[in-house]
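Narrative of activities, Objective 1.

The group set out to show that a structural description can be obtained from nothing but a protein's sequence at a throughput compatible with the screening campaign. Below is one input-output pair from the validation batch, recorded exactly as produced.
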Amino acid sequence: MTGIPLTADTVERYLRFWNTDPAEQLRTGAELFTPDVVQIAPVGVMNGVEALAGFTEQFASHMGAYDYRLRKDPDVHFDRARVQWEIRVGDTSFAEGTDVLVGGSDGRIQAIMTFLDRAPEGFDPDAHQ
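Output recorded for this entry:
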């Protein structure tokens, strides 16, 4: 264990982060994530809150309105949380995945490991390496 235990509230704020416009993400992300937060995902590695917000902005500009939601109650123990999610665009399920959150020494999220459980239609994993 490397950090302060994550809480259900932290996971709820994480969910809200992805459903907020990029300008609001920068404000709330500073409270939720460590300054050096890293997300390692099939689409690449993102460092910092600005990169996470930029990814959301880029996704929304291509796909339009979306909803990032839980598929199951999150599993939280020690300084880790497993968040199983779905992204819906309109009435259509776009993708499903699992994020593993790692808490830092100050109780904020310091790392996100993202796995695709069901990739978007036409997703090419080799295009993002």
